[in-house]
Amino acid sequence: GAVVSQHPSWVICKSGTSVKIECRSLDFQATTMFWYRQFPKQSLMLMATSNEGSKATYEQGVEKDKFLINHASLTLSTLTVTSAHPEDSSFYICSARGTTFYEQYFGPGTRLTVT
Amino acid sequence: GQQVMQIPQYQHVQEGEDFTTYCNSSTTLSNIQWYKQRPGGHPVFLIQLVKSGEVKKQKRLTFQFGEAKKNSSLHITATQTTDVGTYFCAGSSNDYKLSFGAGTTVTVRA
Hints:
The structure holds two protein chains of two kinds. Chain A is mostly beta strands. Helices cover 0% and strands 52% of the residues of chain A. Chain A contains no helices and eleven strands. In chain A, strands 2, 4, 5, 6, 9, 10 and 11 form a seven-stranded mixed β-sheet that branches. A four-stranded antiparallel β-sheet of chain A has the order 1-3-8-7, with no helix packed on it. By secondary structure, chain B is mostly beta strands. In chain B, 0% of the residues lie in helices and 55% in strands. Chain B is globular, with a radius of gyration of 13 Å. The termini of chain B are far apart.
């Protein structure tokens, strides 16, 4: 199957700083990438959908100025958590789909801890 | 918006037994996908169902899509310890976004 990488796998940052998370599709061109947030023992909550070369579409309740998403190429999308606070601590997972399949391939996730 | 409900939330199974997890959508879906997430891991795609009434099998796993395309089920026979994890259904309309169910977390006792 298709492979999606995510970096970093975990990060600890201080409150008020910004953190960038990268999501890459390694062996296919990802026309659409998705960013999810997952709390412990809970389901995946879609934060935003990003299409290459256009602005991301955010789900209701997700602050676009706080969670900046850039999908600059067909293989890379980034999520920047700006002015992070402890309540932003979570597991962030990206996924990607190509042009020829419906399913999404997930990255390994990034565990963010804000102190 | 679209909501996908999944039950049960937890399933504790004796090794060798069968179990089923169920998924229901508030709206008609264009397709439904199933994913498995192992403890500490990320969701891994299992299968996609598109057609009304569709049934697909993967070894001991049987997936069904309801006639109205609003519900789905995953049935696992002869559960093994390798089946441990959380199984998510995820429904999609035509915009390719997935709405995930709450997941069924499966534990197996030997």
